[in-house]
User: Fold this.
Amino acid sequence: MSVKITGIGIISAIGNNAEETLHSLKTKKSGISNISILENHEADLAGEIKYTNQELKSLLKIKDKYVSRTSLLAAFATKEALGNIQQTKNDGFHYGIISSSSVGGMDQSENYFKAIFQEKASNIQLLKTHDLGDGTEFVAKYLGINGFASTISTACSSGVNAIMLGARMIEQGMIDRVLVGGTDALSDFTINGFKSLKIYDEAWCRPMDDSRVGLNLGEAAGYLLLESDRSIEASGNKILAEVVGYANANDAYHQTASSPDGNGATLAIKEAIKVAAIKPEEISYINVHGTGTKNNDLSESIALQNVFGENIPPFSSTKAFTGHTLAAAGAIESVFSVLALQNQVLLANINFKKPLAETNLTPVTDYIENAKVDYILSNSFGFGGNNSAIIFKKA
Assistant:
């Protein structure tokens, strides 16, 4: 049984909706630039969304005083994904939302503590937005979803794991319609944290390139609306794509680094293909995790060789467009995958010049139209060796 995708919603540095996002991907327009909204980081490059929190509130007609940027981005993307479908009480359907995040309300927590350190008045209400579940509950209330609500935080694989859980629940008949995805906003904590690990690139990041030295961070939210066949009969929604395979594996190699021989990634990809009941050669395109760090890109390249041998499908990393958006990464890249299936295109790995010396693999470097795209594999790998892979099928 496959799970149908009937809605997509996204906001990132390359677009405030799916249409703008596709245009940026097509024209190879990156959203990575000098930070302008987050204070004290003007010299840093990141995939920043150029809306202030107040502008987001105004667009969403939100009057709540204490709400995190992460939650605002989630509300923005879920609203687009949900479209005109609204929950009706007592209609016999089970609704839900499964959201993911790594940062949560860190931006508000930072404001609280900055005020204290500066011996200024601070409001403890800011801290109530900190926990990751607060964002999920906020969005559920904003959209009027009174059913199942859950939050996932497994580092950078979170977005895919949220989609995976939603798909499994639909397959098991536990839910009929569910919003799934992830959201994260830029913060001092994450930028300085990645700098402390010596993996933040001061220039434009170069995923899957031999000269890569690190990542650029970004902020984003991406969500899919998943429906059962029963739900689609009632909603009349158009099927955009299907979720047919998924898997999660943990190589338990290191707190932050991927296994050098790609063990966890290999296992996740192989199992996702098995669940999809297809052959490796049926994969048309791979959206790789491709962060631009030395360790990750090499490990993933080896995993691709482990699974596909000498017949690796066309692949690319899209993180040079958006930056690495943490928990939102797998979610927005799932939206990219749906767009690629709908439009039968392959997405570009911009900034690429030279293959990795160890594997000599070359990604797709142009936006290729009129491609035959039936199945897309999207990889998301997180700290602690939490590796996830998901496969989407053309509707």
